[in-house]
Design brief:
This protein has 431 residues and is of the alpha+beta class. It has helices spanning 3-11, 44-60, 68-92, 98-111, 119-125, 130-150, 159-169, 194-212, 217-224, 246-252, 305-320, 325-332, 355-363, 393-424, and strands at residues 33-37, 40-43, 177-187, 235-240, 264-266, 269-280, 286-297, 344-348, 373-375, 378-391, 427-429. The protein folds into 3 domains: 3-150, Porin chaperone SurA, peptide-binding domain (Triger factor/SurA peptide-binding fold, Orthogonal Bundle); 159-283 and 395-429, Chitinase A, domain 3 (Roll); 286-390, Chitinase A, domain 3. The protein has a 4-stranded antiparallel β-sheet. Strands 8-7-10-9 form a 4-stranded antiparallel β-sheet. It has a 3-stranded antiparallel β-sheet with strand order 2-1-11. Helix 2 packs across helix 3 and helix 7 crosses helix 14 (393-424). The longest helix has 32 residues, at 393-424.
């Protein structure tokens, strides 16, 4: 697989599909409908193109696929779920700006050693439309944000859960490691009767038996897994041990690279998890912090940019002449978060401020008030009062624990959410 194909596969975390023309230049229908999804459709051309793309990728990776009719059913269901989620994102009002999109694509390019400006040419050379590529990344960003709103944002974390997690971190091999994982998920029918669980368990045990007999894990994921990443061989990517779902964290500790688990029963089905790679992580963390105070003037109908800049220049003269910075800030600053503190913002870590503010702060000498400068919030002057190297290990542990508890609930909550929105949607399959 060449680099640009890797870029495309890495970007499309959900199954990728390209929009196809539905009408010819004469207005005649030249494409069919594979499924009606609420007010939208999945076109036959989308289904065909996505199925062919997966088939080509499987050939390149020497991976067996299920029979054509089963593969088509899996691909169609993934496209239906994608359509449902995109419609939901539109209802919620989620939008991805061009700036966010360009930043995401630039990050993908940087991670793979490709210049952002070289992407269109490389994609075209590989037979991929840059416009279609951008649409796919935009849609994936929409789906990611929707999941954060509808699933992650609704998962509560109790103080007792954080305390338990922090205690568990001590001398915990899993928490101090990173795992590259793949998984196979066998879902239980919505009715969730004992017979449903027995049927799912039987299928999970069959898959496990096939794996023990030498079957390829990725192939078995494609053929049997009920998760959205099934068509990518069940790959989950790298995960911090302290942020693994609880059902995985409890089993991966004693596992070696290349090993896979017994079927793990959960509320929504059975999981089989495989450790592809493993590496240790350093738990101690230090950051360079700055203690900053500032004055902000926000231009409006009365104060334009030139006036705001001039007011700040005069304020700097006042302070240099002996007036207290804090008193001037209380009289002049428009920042509601710091004005009552005399402009003091406290200790801040990298990334706490917008780039234009942080650049001036990083370049400033301690105790020297900056020249007036503009950010997206208005005009500022700032003073860096102190700098320090701060050990934020404990804070990072607590933050990771919050994420870990959420991730422990995320798999089940995501599965329940996907089932709910699928059940609530009107779907009419036409093939």
């Amino acid at each position: 697989m060449n680099k640009i194909k890797y870029l495309y596969a890495a970007a499309c975390l959900a199954p990728c599909a390209f929009a196809a023309e539905e009408l010819s230049t004469t207005g005649d229908i030249v494409d069919g409908i594979a499924a009606i999804v609420n007010e939208g459709v999945v076109l036959k051309s989308e289904l065909t193109m996505q199925t062919e793309a997966i088939s080509k990728r499987a050939v390149a990776q020497e991976m067996r696929l299920p029979p054509p009719n089963v593969l088509q059913e899996q691909v169609l269901e993934s496209l239906i779920m994608k359509q449902i989620q995109l419609q939901r994102a539109e209802q919620v009002g989620i939008q991805i700006s061009d700036q966010m999109l360009n930043s995401a694509i630039a990050n993908i390019a940087e991670q793979n050693g490709v210049k952002f400006e070289d992407l269109p040419r490389m994609l075209e050379a590989d037979g991929v439309s840059y416009g279609a590529y951008r649409r796919e990344i935009r849609e994936q960003l929409l789906l990611d944000q929707l999941k954060r709103i509808d699933v992650v944002g609704r998962i509560s974390v109790a103080p007792r859960e954080i305390e338990h997690c922090l205690a568990d971190l001590e001398d915990n091999v899993v928490a101090n490691s990173e795992y590259d994982l793949s998984h196979i998920f066998i879902s239980v029918a919505d009715s969730r009767t004992s017979e449903d669980y027995a049927e799912a368990e039987t299928e999970a045990m069959y898959v496990h038996t096939q794996l023990k007999s030498g079957a390829d894990f990725a192939e078995m994921a494609v053929r049997y897994s009920d998760r959205e990443n099934a068509l990518s061989g069940g790959k989950m990517g790298w995960r911090n041990g302290d942020q693994l779902p609880t059902i995985y964290a409890n089993v991966v500790g004693p596992m070696d690279v290349g090993e896979y688990s017994e079927p793990i029963r959960a509320v929504s089905g059975y999981h089989i998890v495989k450790v592809n790679e493993l590496r240790g992580v350093n738990q101690r963390s230090e950051v360079e912090q700055m203690n900053i105070r500032h004055i902000l003037i926000t231009p409006d109908e009365i104060i334009d940019d030139a006036t705001a800049e001039q007011q700040l220049k005069e304020a700097v003269v006042q302070i240099i002449s002996g007036d207290e910075f804090g008193e001037v800030a209380k009289l002049l600053s428009d920042d509601p978060g710091s004005v009552n503190e005399g402009g003091e913002m406290g200790w801040s870590s990298p990334g706490a401020f917008v780039p234009e503010f942080e650049k001036v702060a990083n370049d400033a000498e301690i105790g020297i008030i900056s020249e007036p400068f503009k950010s997206r919030f208005g005009w500022h002057v700032l003073e860096v009062m102190e700098r320090r190297t701060y050990d934020n290990t404990e804070e990072l542990k607590e933050s990771n624990c919050i994420q870990r508890v959420r991730n422990g609930k995320l798999e089940e909550e995501t599965e329940l959410w996907l089932r709910r929105i699928r059940d609530e949607a009107f779907v009419d399959i036409r093939i």
